[in-house]
């Protein structure tokens, strides 16, 4: 097992450990969702709140493990195995961080969820951006448009560009932590939607350019 995969497993186990440690001190109802102003607006039983995130992390681990087996381009996963493992570990770290923040909030620790959440999302985007150019042609992981799936050349060009765009998006998402309320949500959605639309359009333009070269 790769170090990054072992890290993802260790982070998931740690999520269960801290949930078990926190259960005796949590109130019967815990906050699990916050609005744009950073105010708790969704609640659940403490057992659900404490153990749903680790269970989701477990599901993610299993999903990432079996996913390549269903990909027609399964052989390509060996060409970016390290990057695939790092993406897996980064996702586990992200969800563990959210879990820790949620537990801390419900234990009475004065954490600013509305500020920490976009910071965490931004860091995740930056990590993904760094490894995106190394992801090889496949049907499940990466920027999947009709044109990237059709052409490996378009896939590679789009993912090289995507790495830079995701890093830029990550920085902008982190900056939204300095706004509060609806404006923060609007900025978050604008960055994510615009960045992804830009990559979709570029993948089409790369494909059209490649088709012209062939004709």
UniProtKB/TrEMBL annotation:
<feature type="domain" description="DUF1648">
    <location>
        <begin position="11"/>
        <end position="58"/>
    </location>
</feature>
<dbReference type="InterPro" id="IPR025962">
    <property type="entry name" value="SdpI/YhfL"/>
</dbReference>
<feature type="transmembrane region" description="Helical">
    <location>
        <begin position="161"/>
        <end position="179"/>
    </location>
</feature>
<dbReference type="InterPro" id="IPR026272">
    <property type="entry name" value="SdpI"/>
</dbReference>
<dbReference type="Pfam" id="PF07853">
    <property type="entry name" value="DUF1648"/>
</dbReference>
<dbReference type="GO" id="GO:0009636">
    <property type="term" value="P:response to toxic substance"/>
</dbReference>
<dbReference type="Pfam" id="PF13630">
    <property type="entry name" value="SdpI"/>
</dbReference>
<feature type="transmembrane region" description="Helical">
    <location>
        <begin position="113"/>
        <end position="131"/>
    </location>
</feature>
<feature type="transmembrane region" description="Helical">
    <location>
        <begin position="185"/>
        <end position="207"/>
    </location>
</feature>
<feature type="transmembrane region" description="Helical">
    <location>
        <begin position="85"/>
        <end position="107"/>
    </location>
</feature>
<keyword id="KW-1133">Transmembrane helix</keyword>
<dbReference type="InterPro" id="IPR012867">
    <property type="entry name" value="DUF1648"/>
</dbReference>
<keyword id="KW-0472">Membrane</keyword>
<feature type="transmembrane region" description="Helical">
    <location>
        <begin position="46"/>
        <end position="64"/>
    </location>
</feature>
<protein>
    <submittedName>
        <fullName>Membrane protein</fullName>
    </submittedName>
</protein>
<keyword id="KW-0812">Transmembrane</keyword>
